[in-house]
Write the structure tokens for this entry.
Amino acid sequence: AGAGNEGRGAFIVFEGCDRSGKTTQSKKLVAALREKGVDAEWWRFPDRTTGVGRLIDSYLAGKQDTEDDVIHLLFAANRLEKKQELMSKLEGGTTVVLDRYAQSGAAFTMAKATPGLDLAWCMGVEGSRLPAPDVVYFLKAPVEMAAERGGFGDERYEVLEFQRKVADCYMNLSKMEGWRELDATQTIDALHLEICKDAMKVVEACKAGRPIDLLWA
Ligand code: NYM
């Protein structure tokens, strides 16, 4: 950790259905944090640049079919392969803002309702191996609105009916875990301000020594 950067970084996760504004908002948050002198980085999952990530990318592009349990495990492996780097960033005082994390893994797999792949299975796969976010910002928007946004339909899963199921799974997880639910139908700037105010408090609490928990232990 450099000067003026004592204490650990915060681990901030954005979740929500496809095209709900996570990428826009998470990037804006990183820019705002940096402007306030907070050492912050933007990350996303899946990380399509690794070997595992390339397999995931070809699955999402529809170039390759994969069993539901196998693709779930690949998404989890993609997070696990970045765990050491993630932990050393946080411990070194860097705030990491993530566009999707294990909550996406659980929501998308549960939405498929594949026998045997329930929430307990999803949580068991990676829950005790990864750090828990300090906060999850859940961007809520009607799936119809998201479907009208640019690029919707380009990838696997970007189908209205499936997104409705994903939304239901997200709602259940959010209630269970106490995520910060945000109205993603408001303007980009209004939503950004709301997130910024909250995120600064989270950053301060982490700096002051709030411990890093396990994800789902
Ligand atoms: N996705 C993402 C999953 O199904 N499981 C996961 O664990 C993660 C991280 O990948 N439709 C899905 C959700 C998205 C897709 O995400 C790619 P993005 O943010 O559009 O690149």
Q: What stands out?
A: The beta strands are 11-15, 40-44, 95-99, 135-140, 180-183. Residues 18, 45-46, 60, 75, 99-100, 104-105, 108, 155, 157 surround 3'-deoxy-3'-aminothymidine monophosphate (CB under 6 Å). The domain at 11-207 is CATH 3.40.50.300 (Rossmann fold).
